[in-house]
Predict the 3D structure of the following.
Amino acid sequence: MDFDTIVEGLAFPEGPVFMEDGSIILVEIARGAITRVWGDGKTETVAEPGGGPNGAAIGPDGALWICNNGGFEYTNMNGLLIPGNCPVDYSGGRIERVDLATGKVERVVDTVDGHSLKGPNDLVFDRNGNLYFTDHGKTYPRHRDFGGLFFLANGASEAAELDHHHTSPNGVGLSPDEQTVYMADTMTARLWAFDLSAPGEVKKAGMFSKGRVVATMPGLQYFDSLAVTAAGNIAVATILNGGITTITPDGERSHEMFPDMFVTNICYGGEDMCDAWITLSSTGKLAKCRWHEPGLKLNYYA
């Protein structure tokens, strides 16, 4: 797919958010920073929460809400920056709120039912301002923590667990009718769907699982973050087989390649919602292209 490189030299970019002024706000996980990128490639630092700022979204209050995974160890592999295990300076997993006018960072939640969040990864708001977010867990040399899918009602101070004991939950998104939450699991390369009876209430899909598997990728590839299109398809950033895999609700899939093994996220914007920005993380780039279908407009912009 043809694309333009908007900016280079970013420290493992992720979580792109389209802003009404045409800029893109993204996170630089390896720098512990939030950065605004303009169309001419100019960048400015919005905030420096430290740790590992990850998925990002504008909330109903107009602030930028972020998942913070607490940080990674990094390896430089043939010029590519690769995240790995939990670092010695791990600062704990949390959901944070960032005032875009001042850069002030506020910790919103860091535990669920008395259990510490490990590596919050991605988040999405529904039309009522409720928040769904994933916890990716953390990886160590000989084991890893489980992750899960969580829910924070608008105005609540305590989050609720919707599902747990997944290998490595990553991207999360809502169907256009907000009746289904989609979750990408990284290491299994599975796209899960959780059908809702009400906001924050999952209808159990079967005896052994609350969710249902929409698709699983063949061979060795990993799933990262995702976005949903206006038609209800799910665009999942795909690692190793670097690109964006579009999956229909029925599990049919197609793939667009990009020149980075660690393609981690996509967001949509523009007048027709067919402009797409894609984070090429291991090479530190933000790419822009014209997508073949319009993305779903998110509920909140700033």
User: Anything to note?
Assistant: The chain has a mean pLDDT of 97. The CA atoms of residues 5 and 287 lie 4 Å apart. The longest strand covers residues 190-198.
